Model the fold of this input.
Amino acid sequence: MTDNRFFNRSELIGILVLAVFLVVVLPLTLDVFRLNLVAKYLTYAFVALGLVICWGYGGILSLGQGVFFGLGGYCMAMFLKLEASSVENTKIQSTPGIPDFMDWNQITALPFFWKPFNSLTFTIAAIILVPGIFALIIGTAMFKRRVGGTYFAIITQAVAAILTILIVGQQGYTGGINGMTDLRTLKGWDIRPDHAKVVLYFFEVGLLFACIMIAQFVRHSKLGRILVAMREKEDRVRFSGYSVANFKIFAFCIAAMFAAIGGAMFALNVGFMSPSFVGIVPSIEMVIYTAVGGRLSILGAIYGTLLVNFAKTSLSETFPELWLFGLGGLFIAVVLAFPNGLAGIWGDYVQPRIDRLIASRKSKPDGWTDSSVADGAPAE
Amino acid sequence: MLVGHQPKEFLLAVEALTVSFDGFKAVNDLSFYVDENEIRVIIGPNGAGKTTVLDLICGKTKATSGSIQFRGKELTRMRENEIVKTGVGRKFQNPSIYDDLTVFENLEISYPRGRSVFGALTFTRDAAVRDRVHEVAEMIFLKDRLHMNADLLSHGQKQWLEIGMLLIQDPDLLMLDEPVAGMSVSERAQTAELLNRIIKNRSVLVIEHDMKFVEDIAHKVTVLHQGQILSEGTMEKVKNDPKVVEVYLGH
Done:
């Protein structure tokens, strides 16, 4: 059943199709502005990928992934902001050398927790570890006490709300509601011009595939099967000698770290970070991407994210006030009619036809869509 | 709460065990001892506290007071998964298996290796695992269904699968809650044969209503009534106990 520790044959085809789509097709067909939009959408794909592991496989619905997306994003933004706030760039401030929003808030020295973010190495470690450790603390506090299901979802929402309020309230340390804007260079390399956007896009796609590989490895390991088992019969897993809480904590931490990588890439690609990506609404939107793509499908979550975001961009340009209703309606429709999302539709309707076509004509099907989305999932 | 030292030869020593649910004592000051390689059957009317006793031993329910010692280790203070690791296996009344996984994967998860998070990530399906899964699958009559999803099995087959999942854990104390309930006559006969094979070299604690089945396998019978022991001894002795006849066997 398992050809190797990462994927079987049809999953490999699916991953290759996605790679061709992201690495060849999109860059050749889109202009830099649109490609940068895709880069922005893909930062959410990291979150969706984490939710597949955590929610799809582990059954742990987190409505607060924006927290980890935000923590990763803010870590990256703090580094970029410090670099953009060199003494010569900020000499008109009353205290030169600190970020502009601090100066506006009468802060006269860099706060202690900002100082390590002068180092890129520290920043990269912090992007992974800060959200990872935060998820570990929340996970330990909740899962060891056997808080789960709806209660857990509500608590993650509360955390998202609290963090937003904290960021907005501590304007002098965080940039408040405006967030951290005017991010310019990464180690002297300007992140704003078109060619930098292209480089960042390819770097991000590379990271995304690294995360897909990690997710595939987790899913094909015994741990992946234990997550599925736990989702259904938590007690049985306990009485097979496993600590259910530890496995849930692991799934939650992986999802948090993926989300944080997405957040960091967001800060780089979009050039700013603000509390509007941390709170309850963005967190729920991220769950919708996963649901639309198919919560049991690693690749489906990525297509789902891209599709919903393309729809969001084009629809919200034409019907700004209708978009939110559209998104809500889409979520309800998917959950009621297609609980396994796009991947489910693919596996139930498209894949069988292609199989028949191949069997009868022995000709290759064309089209960009991924062929393993559905049969990749071991479970309904 | 130390209630004296018991002689080492008991595998399981339950002493003064009490559990109270909002004042209702489901198990009340219960004491009994199980020897190595003993097959003990617990019988009693509905609501006597039979399943609660198993829940207490395996850690699903926490005791209000009293002690449960297994090979000298106090179980009342341990978590469920730690109790499993000391060698106690439990089968639930309704078949409790993983419907979304195949029979093979169900058995593999129960194989006692790689139980930590890291261990599960690096677990490899090597020859030892495969051989053991095939061996157990053959014992539980599911050899040719290894790659079938477990939710497609019949009720009886699900019961066997759960027994198989316990078997692969190789516990020293096997606890079975109504293993033949809801089975057809032929499945029942097969299950009795299966149980007779797997109870060798281990102690077994069984809850069962089927008296014929109890007579076949029990070394000793404990009769529970309202959370307390009504009678204990060989089947012969228990059957002729007037108190037992009155509350249970008389019906």
Notes: The radius of gyration of chain B is 18 Å.
